[in-house]
Design brief:
Layout: H1 6-12, H2 19-49, H3 51-72, H4 75-99, H5 116-120, H6 131-144, E1 151-152, E2 163-166, E3 172-178, H7 188-198, E4 206-211, H8 217-226, E5 228-231, H9 233-240, H10 247-250
Parallel strand pairs: 3-4, 4-5
Antiparallel strand pairs: 1-2, 2-3
Helix pairs in contact: 2-3, 3-4, 7-8
Length: 258
Amino acid sequence: MGIQTRSTARKGRRREFDVRRTAFGFAFLALLICGAGLAVRTALRSAERHPVVAVVSAVALVAAVVVLLRLRRSRRTAARAAAAAVETAYEVVDAALEELPEADAVPPRPEPLRTVDQEAMAPYDYEAMDPYDFEEAVAALCRRDGCLDAEVVGGAGDLGADVVGTTPDGRRLVVQCKRYTSDNKVGSQDLQRFGGTCYAVHGAEAAVVVTTGEFTDPALEYAEQCGIVCVGLDGLTAWSEGAAPPWYASASVQPAEG
């Protein structure tokens, strides 16, 4: 019987060293290492921003490892590994949930504070106010519409000026407030007293009389001659609801020379 020598020679012969194959192997290994590093870095950043997604990904990875273990090990060993992996995953999930902020911990949104100017836009019962509150409400309307320095100066010895300020176009604003009832009208004598002081004493360039009542016809005639703007209850209500402020009308009304 003959002896086979060819196969024995092949088994005992060592492979020749291939430079290209070795270089390719090292390059492929380097790419794997770099890719793994980038994947880990990306996973860490994602975990900081989205901990729940990171936990789900970790559970999926553990499940994949368990599947591989089931393929390579016995069923008993794989079952133990799966139980340990699931227990670890639950612990990770619990830890991540503890780190998440609770819904009750979010502070409630504070309600916006109402400023004086915003309150001036609310519907007011001007007739129910006392004289001082009425003056404050008129001053708030002036500030709302651009007279930022409007203030109440009324009182004893005010000589007819209850609210003073500066209009947005730079004119001196002087306002007299008459908190009258509907059956008490502002007469010509009231307008004459105000007309005698608003220009000469207070240096008014925009003179306005505001009332919760009405004006008599002689009072309106005198106001037109002196360049005084009269605002009754209807005009006051329209102004508070957003109509043009009275000093715009006073710009077209000039006091008569006398």
